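Input structure tokens:
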């Protein structure tokens, strides 16, 4: 079974009803905002308070150990060798990703893997905000590609229950193990979910399943992620992966497995240690608007999430950011809680502070389109999360930010995230 990567089908609720190009379609943002609540408040209960690993998960011992430090004690020297005008194509294990663009917004990025022997091709949303691989079974009842274990000579039915709640819905099934093929590399005996029931939400996007790339401590299948299995089996050059997200074009995005692709970056990497090895969560110390820095009284833990489109902050922090943007307004009475507008003529320069470094958000990515109520106002891409429901120290940093920064996720050095300037901004 071969996945058709050129076929992009999106549910009708995401189709534009706009009269003018660039107008804001509230349904997309409202849907994602509610999805983000669900993803982080139900997927891993108890993790939000300081972002700590779920203690019942037996993957904790693996990611908390010195395993990867023994394999590669430090990737810095290696990274320095490849950053620059050198040919490193022989060490790159890359997977191309397709950008799903809805109403001029880059909504989702997915790539293809082969599951089983012989390989069955399926497509997967690459999600650093979750830690499970799952595939739809023939009993799922949708029109997408399916994985059929009976057609694989390496399939093993583990007969354990599997259920995950994401921002985009909930899936139910059982666990199995099989060979996963990535760019010609075989990952043996990988555990994943075989889904027999999925909520309607998942049928609104073109990807077949989800590829979770967070730490295995939050895996609902209680197993190592695909990347962690690759490390254990010695399939990788380095214990890190890197992600390039294209802006406004279907092709060009890429995931580099165990590598850093210097053709996707225009400068060196800045590193930040993860708070705990669960999500790829790093401390944010403040923000910058038009060159004016504001530091937080309390450090914000920011989860770097390729599976989320926009950026989400605690209510008080979002209000503080927009207060620095001349002409911005609370749009909760027109669009709903958490929405803000600002003058469309403004070239708003917003940056997030990690450590003492400002990482800017591209103005085109921050501008989600024209307000339907006032053509002089546009919707901002930073959303406020209700204080009654959302932790005061948690932010979610999605694709809106990551399109400007080539991101690297490193298991060595205790776990860290790196940002290098993306070629998107040349």
């Amino acid at each position: 079974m071969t996945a058709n990567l050129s076929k992009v089908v999106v549910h009708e609720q995401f189709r534009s009803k706009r009269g003018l190009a660039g107008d804001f379609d509230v349904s997309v943002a409202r849907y994602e905002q509610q999805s983000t609540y669900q993803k982080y408040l139900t997927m891993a209960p108890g993790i939000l308070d300081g972002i700590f690993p779920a203690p019942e998960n037996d993957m904790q011992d693996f990611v908390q150990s010195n395993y990867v430090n023994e394999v590669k004690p430090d990737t810095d020297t290696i990274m320095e060798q490849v950053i620059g005008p050198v040919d490193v194509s022989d060490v790159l294990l890359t997977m191309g990703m397709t950008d799903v663009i809805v109403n001029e917004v880059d909504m989702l990025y997915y790539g293809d893997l082969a599951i089983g022997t012989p390989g069955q091709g399926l497509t997967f949303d690459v999600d650093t905000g979750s830690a499970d691989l799952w595939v739809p079974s023939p009993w799922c009842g949708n029109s997408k590609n399916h994985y059929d274990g009976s057609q694989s000579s390496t399939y093993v039915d583990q007969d354990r229950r599997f259920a995950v709640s994401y921002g985009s819905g909930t899936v139910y099934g059982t666990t199995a193990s099989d060979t996963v093929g990535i760019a010609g590399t075989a990952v043996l005996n990988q555990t994943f979910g075989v889904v027999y029931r999925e909520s309607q939400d998942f049928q609104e996007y073109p990807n077949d399943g989800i590829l979770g790339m967070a730490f295995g401590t939050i895996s609902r299948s209680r197993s190592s992620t695909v990347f962690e299995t690759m490390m254990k089996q010695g399939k990788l050059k380095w214990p890190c992966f890197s992600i390039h997200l294209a802006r406004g074009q279907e092709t060009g995005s890429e995931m580099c497995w165990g590598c850093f692709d210097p053709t996707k970056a225009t400068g060196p990497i800045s590193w930040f240690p993860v708070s705990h090895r669960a999500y790829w969560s790093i401390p944010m110390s403040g923000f910058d608007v038009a060159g004016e820095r504001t530091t937080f009284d309390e450090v914000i833990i920011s989860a770097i999430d390729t599976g989320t489109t926009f950026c989400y902050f605690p209510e008080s922090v979002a209000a503080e950011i927009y207060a620095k943007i001349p002409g911005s307004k609370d749009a909760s009475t027109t669009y709903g809680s958490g929405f803000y507008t600002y003058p469309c003529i403004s070239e708003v320069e917003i940056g997030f502070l990690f450590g003492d470094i400002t990482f800017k958000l591209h103005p085109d990515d921050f501008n989600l389109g024209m307000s339907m109520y006032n053509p002089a106002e546009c919707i901002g891409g930073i959303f406020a999360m209700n204080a009654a429901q959302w932790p005061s120290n948690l932010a979610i940093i999605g694709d809106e930010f990551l399109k400007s920064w080539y991101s690297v996720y490193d298991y060595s050095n205790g776990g860290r995230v790196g940002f290098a300037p993306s070629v998107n901004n040349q």
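The helical segments are 26-42, 60-64, 67-71, 76-82, 226-232, 315-323, 363-366, 399-402. Residues 26-42 form the longest helix (17 residues).
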